[in-house]
Amino acid sequence: MKTRELSFGTFSIVGADPRTGEVGVAVASKFLAVGSVVPFAQAGVGAVATQSYANTTYGPRGLELMRRKVAPSQILQRITRDDPQREQRQVGIVDAQGRSATFTGKNCIRWAGGIAGKNFAAQGNILTGEAVVKAMAQAFQNTQGELALKLMAALEAGERAGGDSRGKQSAAILVARPNGGYGGFDDRYIDLRVDDHPEPVQELRRLLNMQLLFRRQDRAFRLYDRKQYQAAARVFADIIRDAPNDANAHYNYACILALAGSPKAALRHLKRALELDRNLVRIAVGDPDFASLRDNPEFQDLLKQYQ
Predict the structure, then answer these.
(1) Do 12 and 25 touch, CB atoms closer than 8 A?
(2) Residue 139 CA to chain centroid, in angstroms?
(3) Quick check: 163 and 121 in contact, CB under 8 A?
(4) Which of 18, 20, 175, 231 has its CA at 20 to 30 Å from residue 189's CA atom?
(5) Is the CB of residue 103 less than 8 Å from the CB of residue 52?
(6) Cβ(189)–Cβ(176) under 8 Å?
(7) Which helix (H) or strand (E) holds 48?
(8) Phi/psi of residue 99, each to 5°?
């Protein structure tokens, strides 16, 4: 019964940025919640995508071997060697150094195959053709910017080239960055899933853009916590350029500008924040970050206008 749900068609890419220690996986499939099965990643170690009658033990086993500095090509041999269903499996591995490998069992449903290169491995099964993984590889290599953007571009390119021959349903992206999680407490920098959607890759791109904006604000808040207000203000200046209609970004920028000793700029961005979301006035009234503005008539009038 090779058409049963376990044999879901999938295209994925694992990638690494050796400069930063980031590693990650992007995946799409005509399968419910593909992100709950395929991706595994650990910052500074590596990433694994396991699919096509997926053996989910490949993820943790592959990461453990990478922690022991075993090369991805050797890892593939070890984890598939004693698996009686290895010829139905597909897996891609990349370590934090950028070494990669991909495996496609002989009994994977065609078209099935993969490409491994420096810092990435792209693979897929039940695809419209080889053009899918070729497009993914090219997009990853040609896209500038951080790893999440490269992985997302590869996924989009794979879909444009035909993707899963049966259609669309879910997509996911997982990127591990050293201390990249919320508050810097873990490595879960990007962890997004679209479990059931008519256009899952498009929806994943929308969520990724939102998450990257949030992560930039998180970096600014860490500078804020260290009272490095000028540096935090520079981060928010970039955020505002990319998200000019984000009320919370304007509000937080206003707070930091007030603390940095730029009252006029702080009032300008607070005004814009309240124009976009007047409910923020409830926070501004008692926000200690605006202590330096409490006696400023313009600040007082602004609050009265929106209360």
Answers:
(1) yes
(2) 16
(3) no
(4) 231
(5) no
(6) yes
(7) strand 46-51
(8) -75, 140
